[in-house]
Design a protein that fits this description.
Blueprint lengths: L2 H12 L25 H10 L2 H5 L18 H18 L4 H10 L8 H11 L6 H12 L10 H8 L10 H24 L10 H7 L3 H16 L9 H19 L2 H4 L2 H17 L6 H9 L4 H10 L3 H12 L10
Helix pairs in contact: 2-5, 4-5, 4-9, 4-11, 5-8, 5-9, 6-14, 8-9, 9-11, 9-12, 10-12, 14-16, 14-17, 15-16
Length: about 350
C-alpha cells in the first residue's frame, strides 16, 4: 500500500463525518497522476508554498505602508497567522488540515502592492473590476508557472475564491479559513496599531473588551475557543451570536479609528497615485511590459486592462516603487570629459 493511501485510510477512520476527505475531492481541472506520498490537498499546499506569488507576500502591505520596524505584519505574516489559527480550529474539529492549510496559504496571493489601496485603484482601472480573491484564483489557475497555473483541486480553489466576508465556501475547511481571516486581522491590527501609537488598549470600547477579552492574547484565545465550541458536531463553522457581534463591532471600530486614521494611512494617497500612474503608463506604452505579458497582449489572450492589472497586482511594494521611479523620477547621469 502507498503511503498516500495509508494517510487517506487514517483520514477516513479519524476525521469528522463532516470533514472533506482527500479521496472524495472533485479533482483537478487537468487530470494528473497522484503522488505516492502526499494526498491531494497536501500537494496543493506545497504547490502554493513554492510559488513565486507566495514569496512576494513578504514584501506586500498588510495595513501599515512602509512601517519603520521589523514587527509590523506583512501580507505573508498575516497569511501564516491565518493558517496557524485555522489549523488549530481544524484539528480540534477533526477537519482536513491539509485542505485548511492549502486554502489559508493561497487566500491572499492576489493582493496588490500597498494593500487595499492598490486594490481600489486597479478595481477602478480594470473594466471588469478587480477583487483580490478572484485575482488569487486567477494566479493559481492561469498566471503561475509561466501561464500553466498550479492545477489545484476544486476544493482549494473554492476556499480561496470564497474567503472574503461575502463568500460562501462549500467545505467546512473553507469556512474555517474564512472566519480565521477575520480573526487574524482584528487580533493583529489592534496589536500593530498599538505598536504604531495609533491607539492604546484602553481606547477599545469596554463592551467589546468585556466579551472578547482585555488583551490581544485573551481576544485571540476567546475567538478560537468560541468557534470550536460553537461548531462541534456541526457541518457549519460559526461563532456564537455574542462573540460574532462583538467581532463585527471591533471591525467597525478598526475601520473608523485605524484603517481610516490619517496617521496610519497618510501615505495611501501617494500609493494610489503611484499605482494609477503606472497603470496609465503601461496603457500608453504596452511595450514596457515584461516580454511574457506583452506576448499575451499581442496574442489577444486577455484584454489589455486585465493584463496590465495582472502585472501591477503581482508587484511587491518595493518593486512598484522602483518601477515608478524608473518611469517618473529623473535619474542622475554623467558624461566623460567636461
Amino acid at each position: 500500500m502507498l503511503i498516500r493511501e495509508m494517510i487517506e485510510e487514517i483520514e477516513q477512520k479519524n476525521l469528522s463525518p463532516y470533514a472533506t476527505l482527500d479521496q472524495n475531492s472533485k479533482g483537478r481541472a487537468k487530470e494528473e497522476a497522484q503522488c505516492d506520498i502526499r494526498p491531494l490537498f497536501q500537494r496543493d499546499r506545497d504547490r502554493i508554498l513554492h510559488s513565486k506569488a507566495f514569496r512576494r507576500l513578504k514584501n506586500k502591505t498588510q495595513v501599515f505602508l512602509y512601517p519603520m520596524g521589523d514587527h509590523y505584519r506583512t501580507r505573508m505574516s498575516h497569511t501564516l497567522e491565518v493558517s496557524q489559527n485555522a489549523r488549530t480550529i481544524g484539528k480540534a474539529l477533526r477537519m482536513n488540515e491539509g485542505l485548511i492549510e492549502a486554502i489559508a496559504l493561497g487566500h491572499d496571493l492576489g493582493h496588490t502592492p500597498f494593500g487595499h489601496a492598490g486594490e481600489d485603484v486597479l478595481n477602478a482601472c480594470c473594466e471588469g473590476g478587480f477583487v483580490h480573491s478572484e485575482q488569487s484564483v486567477r494566479i493559481v489557475e492561469k498566471l503561475e508557472k509561466d501561464g500553466e497555473g498550479l492545477n489545484l483541486t476544486w476544493e482549494v480553489i473554492d476556499g480561496i475564491r470564497n474567503h472574503q466576508t461575502q463568500g460562501h465556501p462549500n467545505t467546512p475547511e473553507g469556512q474555517i479559513v474564512r472566519l480565521c481571516d477575520k480573526i487574524a486581522y482584528v487580533y493583529a491590527d489592534v496589536d500593530d496599531a498599538i505598536r504604531g501609537r495609533i491607539m492604546v488598549e484602553e481606547d477599545l470600547p469596554v463592551e467589546i473588551r468585556k466579551t472578547l477579552g482585555f488583551t490581544a492574547k485573551e481576544r485571540l484565545n476567546h475567538m478560537i475557543h468560541d468557534v470550536i465550541m460553537t461548531s462541534l458536531n456541526s457541518p457549519e463553522i460559526r461563532m456564537s451570536e455574542e462573540t460574532g457581534q462583538a467581532m463585527v463591532e471591533l471591525r467597525k471600530y478598526l475601520f473608523e479609528h485605524v484603517y481610516r486614521n490619517p496617521e496610519a494611512k497618510g501615505e495611501e494617497v501617494k500609493a494610489k497615485r503611484m499605482i494609477r500612474m503606472l497603470y496609465e503608463y503601461y496603457n500608453d506604452h504596452p511595450k514596457a511590459l515584461p516580454e511574457n505579458f506583452y506576448a499575451k497582449l499581442l496574442n489577444g489572450e486577455d484584454p489589455k486592462d486585465r493584463i496590465i492589472c495582472d502585472y501591477i497586482a503581482g508587484m511587491s511594494d518595493g518593486y512598484c516603487t522602483t518601477k515608478f521611479k524608473e518611469y517618473f523620477v529623473p535619474q542622475a547621469w554623467e558624461v566623460d570629459g567636461f
